[in-house]
Amino acid sequence: MRRKSFDAIVSAGGLLMAVVLVAAGALLFWAYSYTNGTVTSQLASQKITFPSKAAFEQAKVGTEIEPVMLPYLEKYAGEPLTTGAQAEAYADHFIFYHLQEIGGGQTYAQLSADALALPPGTPAYTAAEAKVQTVFQGTTLRGMLLNAYGWWKMGQIALISAIAAFIAAAIASVLSVLGLRHFRKVPLTEEIPRLVPADQVITTKSPVGAAVPS
After folding, report:
1. 196 in a domain, yes or no?
2. What is the pTM of this model?
3. By the 8 A CB rule, do 102 and 131 touch?
């Protein structure tokens, strides 16, 4: 194959790859923008705000803010909940702890089954039903926040992928340009693999004395 043809094919392939990568990067960035915008608007509509800084300063076991929550929530003190990272922190390190305290470590399904086993109309049944409703509402809110976090995380992955695609496209473009420059300089008659003229072939003696090219 002529070297010029090889350079032309490789350079054209590189340019085509760059175009595909740019298109992929654009789609991934659009996915990120759409996902991030939707998650932000949905979370903002819930009007959830993190406890104030003063509340975190008074953290105590058995109160609204417990010391175990500080590493995850204190940095968001007083802020409205609008991002996936905030949603995950609020769901897993605020709601979850209070649900564990209210339900004594039991899930909504377990508490509901226990309540149904009690005689209806009794004070114990009424108290158990109230606890079930509270845990149900908290579990529902936690699930919604974690769902938002999952979509937000997908958006972040799309953003990273978009950046990687754009970088790869830039590299492919540079290599293609270098290939085209080489295409212009290489002699028209150069072949791949490079052919060696017959008068430059070095011969050696085989074990039986026959001359063979080396």
Report:
1. yes
2. 0.75
3. yes
For residue 207, tell me if it sits in a domain: yes
- Strands 203-205 and 211-213 turn out to be antiparallel
Please tell me which residue, 46 or 191, carries the higher pLDDT value: 46
Q: Which structure tokens are listed for 6?
A: 């090889």
Does residue 174 lie in a domain region?
Answer: yes
Task: Domain of residue 123: give its range.
Answer: 3-46+81-213
- Has residue 142 got a pLDDT over 90? yes
Assess contact for 56 and 65: CB atoms under 8 A. Answer: yes
Identify which of 67, 64, 63, 73 has the alpha carbon closest to the alpha carbon of residue 93: 73
Residue 178 and residue 11: Cα distance in Å, rounded?
Answer: 8
CB crowding 156-183: b at 16 or more within 10 Å, else e: eebbebbeebbebbeebbebbeebbeeb
Q: How many domains does the chain have?
A: 1
165-175 per-position pLDDT tens digit: 999 999 988 88
Domain-embedded: residue 115: yes
Give how far the C-alpha of residue 161 lies from the chain's centroid of Cα atoms, to the nearest Å.
Answer: 8
CA distances from 79 to 52, 61, 87, 112 (A): 8, 23, 12, 34
Residue among 179, 186, 180 nearest 3 (CA): 186
